[in-house]
């Protein structure tokens, strides 16, 4: 650019001298107009160059960020695929181990553990299958998980009703929700209908309209025993439900209403994300 400006400046000086010689002071307005025009041309040229440079840099930056994002998504999907495969291996090992056990209590414990692992494996399976690699479609996930549990326990005499909104959760919250559904539905299948031939289990997952999500698992079975205290009940399944509810900062309640109702209320937005925003 400097090599262009110098000849232009030289030409302009010669032009000014010739005008002064030809017209004298009468050409002052023409000289000023020429000077202004030249300055404007220089400034415009400089801005055009700067804008062009910025656009080139922005385009390169966008391309670089797009490439990084694509690489990051690929790595995330690869991790999810490997986690899913590893969990499937664990499931296969548990299935093989059950063939060598005869004790009913041990077999039942192994069966329950297998279902818990499956609820986690299903999350990573859904993440790998869908376009989004970060959020789980809970509407699809809940239905498939409940169907698996029904088949797992051969519960042909129990009717399941599933009603969920279009809700997407990240893995940090989808995993606890999946385990809670596994525990509550399993408890209903195993304990709620010991005195009935046919029963119903309703699983709902809804928005409350107040920025909260409500998960409810309700059955029309025999209900909770008299004097039931959730804090005093220390079974593995109940401790797991309480611990997972605390992990997602949820409000857990268990009560009788023509059967047992287990209700969990928690924030739809990520709790840690909201806390970070409030701190800022």
Automatic annotation (TrEMBL):
Transmembrane segments annotated in the record for this chain: 28-45
Tree of life domain: Bacteria
Lineage: Bacteria, Pseudomonadati, Bacteroidota, Flavobacteriia, Flavobacteriales
Molecular-function annotations in GO: ATP binding; protein histidine kinase activity
Residue ranges of every copy of the Histidine kinase domain listed in the record: 78-270
EC number(s) from the headed UniProt entry: 2.7.13.3
SUPFAM superfamilies, A to Z: ATPase domain of HSP90 chaperone/DNA topoisomerase II/histidine kinase (SSF55874)
Chemical reaction(s) catalysed: ATP + protein L-histidine = ADP + protein N-phospho-L-histidine
Protein name: histidine kinase
A Pfam family assignment: HisKA_2
InterPro entries per record: HATPase_C_sf, HATPase_dom, His_kinase_dom, Sig_transdc_His_kin_sub2_dim/P
UniProt KW keywords: ATP-binding, Kinase, Membrane, Nucleotide-binding, Phosphoprotein, Transferase, Transmembrane, Transmembrane helix
PANTHER family for this protein: ETHYLENE RESPONSE SENSOR PROTEIN, TWO-COMPONENT SYSTEM SENSOR PROTEIN
């Amino acid at each position: 650019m400097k090599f262009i400006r110098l000849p232009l400046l030289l030409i302009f000086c010669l032009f000014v001298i010739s005008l002064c010689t030809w017209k004298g002071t009468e050409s002052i307005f023409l000289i000023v107009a020429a000077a202004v025009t030249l300055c404007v041309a220089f400034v415009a040229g400089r801005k055009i160059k700067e804008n062009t440079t910025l656009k080139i840099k922005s385009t390169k930056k966008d391309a670089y960020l797009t490439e990084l994002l694509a690489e990051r998504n690929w790595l995330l999907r690869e991790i999810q695929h490997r986690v899913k495969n590893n969990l499937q291996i664990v499931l296969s090992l548990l299935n093989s181990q059950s063939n060598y056990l005869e004790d009913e209590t041990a077999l039942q414990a192994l069966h329950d553990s297998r279902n818990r692992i499956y609820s986690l494996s299903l999350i990573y399976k859904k993440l790998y299958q869908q376009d989004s690699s970060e959020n789980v479609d809970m509407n699809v996930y809940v239905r498939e998980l409940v169907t698996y549990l029904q088949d797992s326990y051969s519960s042909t005499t129990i009717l399941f009703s599933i009603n969920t909104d279009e809700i997407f959760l990240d893995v940090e919250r989808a995993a606890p929700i999946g385990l809670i559904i596994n525990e509550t539905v399993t408890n209903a299948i195993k304990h709620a209908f010991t005195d009935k031939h046919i029963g119903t289990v309703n699983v709902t997952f809804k928005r409350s309209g107040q920025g909260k999500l409500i998960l409810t698992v309700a059955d029309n079975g025999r209900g909770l025993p008299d004097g039931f205290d959730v804090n005093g009940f220390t079974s593995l399944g109940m401790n797991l439900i309480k611990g997972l509810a605390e992990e997602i900062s949820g409000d857990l309640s268990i009560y009788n209403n023509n059967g047992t109702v287990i209700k969990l209320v928690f924030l739809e937005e990520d709790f840690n994300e909201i806390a970070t925003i409030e701190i800022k």
